[in-house]
Structure formats: structure tokens, C-alpha cells
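Example complex used in Figure S2.
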Amino acid sequence: PAAPPAERYARSAASHAEAKRYMPGGVNSPVRAYRAVGREPVTIRSGAGAWVTDVDGNRYVDYVGSYGPLILGHAAPQVLAAVGEAMRNGTTFGMPTEAETRLARTVVDAVPGVDVVRFVNSGTEAAMSALRLARAATGGHRVIKCIGCYHGHTDAMLVSAGSAATSLGVPSSPGVPAAVAASTLLVPFNDLDAVERAMATHRGEIACMAVEPIAGNMGLVPPAPGYLQGLRALCDRFGVPLLFDEVMTGFRVDHGCAQGLYGVTPDLTCLGKVVGGGLPCAAYGGREELMRQVAPDGPVYQAGTLSGNPLAMAAGQAQLDALAADGFAAYRRLEAASARLEEGLRGLAADAGCPLTTTRVGSMLGVFFVEEDGSPVRDYADATAQSTRRYAAFFGAMLDAGVILAPAAFECWFVSTAHDDEAIEHTLAAAGPAFAAAAAT
Ligand code: PMP
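Predicted assembly (441 residues):
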């Protein structure tokens, strides 16, 4: 591919050079450093609706969407107004506020598996806390986890080992104690037999079966028909709590989250991203008798100085209220825009002779540069069989044409209600040549 035009990115390059002096990789979350796509990151100045602007003044249609929270787009007026109003009354108290109860009620009313909820500050914290609760409630120390699913970077969950079938976990990072990693049992996504074997082999030792009901951290991999129902049945048979990590899917795919969409109710649920309206906020919740074991109602300790923060509560409430308005019209708009985007991309890839598989649930879209056009992507093995070189070429061409995607092949695209016809048309105009560049790589 052609070298990126240096003058277009001059100020970002200078900014990133300085950032690297003070922060690992110059970033506060690794993917932002663009290492997987062989480019230098652009430094962002501002966002509005579907668009972001970098420090050089380049504008981009944005499908990163801060990795999921921004379902109304950047700087959504309802969210800004709510945060502004909350802010004038003080930023944090460490004492109860009515805003927490209001958002908690909204969550409990919307999410079938959540009777009681606790707000925390990140998805990592939600998964960590839900796992502790599951361990306390069952006495089991093991967690069953799908290869390629991400539940934040808490030790027991930072295990995904790309390797075969059910096996004892190997840590994905130095610093995770081997003993902790070994308590994590790995199964391929969409494979019920592997779950059954793990449950039968480790009867009485399993704290929970954790899964992203729609896998969004290996690209987008939807559950096969019957998979979630099958997990529910296995969990019931073996007496294992079912944990849906809906940090990404919660309030994105439906007001009732993935569990509402597929009609499968878990025992425990993690939420994040959309529920916090773009401020640091996440939550875990579940069945009454489980959640009453959390302190101070019960002995399972978990706390947070900034948990239930008034600004985050206001942002989350404003965003969820906007999504619910007019009979949940936002979800129908998201579906229409995302379907148009997916169709357009498929057609352009075919025209460019670039083999492609797309996957989609509502406004979450997966684009895989597979070997054979349309070959199915059901699990991590399928997802990682795609060409990351082609993705890198595609990514670079899109960036240079004013469309910003996640800088790694294994993230999904997030469409917002602000992605209007103009934004989608701009995206598709860029994608034709970008698929040609990918096909030539
Ligand atoms: N669970 C899932 C399903 C996620 O997608 C993520 C973040 N991408 C997390 C947990 C971790 O959330 P956070 O980055 O807020 O810690």
C-alpha cells in the first residue's frame, strides 16, 4: 500500500511522539497505539455525531465509538445537557443520590436477568466482582470461559490461549499467577459439547459459565441458533450459574440486551459501555438471592469511591431514556443504517474481488478478510483464520480516506444513531478503493 501522506498527519505524529515519552506506548489502553495495523495513531481533538476530528483538522466517520458506549454518537446533546446539569450540583459525594436509584430502576425494569444491580466503574470491575460473587455463592473456584471472549483484564479472565478445545488455562499475560489461570476452563464459543465435558469433569468445582452472549471481541460472532438456550440447559442440569457478560451488548442490541433478544435469562449479568453514556460506569446484577450476598446485605465484599458517580448516572440515564423514546425507535433506525452499511460493504468487496464475510447483530458489525468469500465465522479459530495483512491495508486506506475503524481486525464496528445517510455514503465511497487495496495485498 501507498505510504501514508506525512503532512496530513504531522501534528498527530508530534503529539504521539511526546505521548510515548510519558505513557506506555503513548496510550492508556494498548489497542490505541495502532501496533496491529502498522500505522501511527491519530490524536483526536473532538467529536460530533458520527464524526471525529483529529489535531491536524482531518475529519473521519467513526466506527470505533469509544468501543461501544456512544450509541447516540459523539457529544449527543441529551447526554451533554444531563451531565452539565449534574455537574453543577457537584461531581461526587460518596453518599447516596436519587440518580443512582433511578438508573438502577431503569436497568432492573429493562433486563430480564437483573433483579438487583450494583454500579461499578469499568467492565473489568463488573466481571471481576460478578466472578467473586459466583465463587462465593457456589463454593466453586473454576470459571468456564470461551476462547476469544473478553471479560476485562482481571486475572482469572485474562486467559484465552488460542489453542485447542477444553484445556486448563494458560495466562494471556505475564503477572497472572499460573494457579489462577489454571482455574479457568477454556471452551470454544458455540460448542455445547465442550461445555458439557467441562461441567461433567469438574462437577462441584465450577463457580460460573461466563460468556459474551454475542461475542464482540474476536470481531463479531453471533451465537449459533440454540447455543444460548443450550448453555442455559447445561447450567441448570449441573447447577452452575450462567453469567452473561453484556458489557458490549447491553442496551446496544436491544432494550432488553442480548438476553431479551434471544429469550435466555442468565443468573448474573455484567453491563458497561452504553449504560454509562460515555462516562466511566459499568454494573453487575442478577437474581435477587445472589445479589443479596453482596455487602452490606451479605458477606461478599466489593466497593468503590466513585461507584454510582453522579455524572455517570446522569449520562447513562439520558442515553437510555433517548434510546427508549418513541417506542424504542432508535433501535429500528440503528438496524436500518447498519443493514445498509453491511449490504454496501459486501457489494463493494465483491466488486473489488476481495473475499469477505460479514456478521451483524443490530448495530454491531463484523468484517472478516477470510480466504474464501462468505466462509462462516463461528468461533475464535474461524475468526483468527482471516488475513490481518488485508485488514491492515483496508484500515490504512479507510483512514486516509476519512473513515476511522478499530485498529485491529478482531474488534467489531459500532454504528450509532448519528450515522445518517451522509456518513454511510462517505464510508461506502471510501470502502471501494480500500477493498481493492486489501485484495492487492
Ligand atoms: N467485557 C466485555 C464483553 C467487553 O467488551 C469489555 C471491554 N471491551 C470488558 C468486559 C471490559 O470493560 P472495560 O474496558 O470497561 O474494563
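The CA atoms of residues 120 and 307 lie 5 Å apart. Residues 67, 122-124, 127, 150-152, 212, 216-217, 245, 247-248, 272, 282 surround 4'-deoxy-4'-aminopyridoxal-5'-phosphate (CB under 6 Å).
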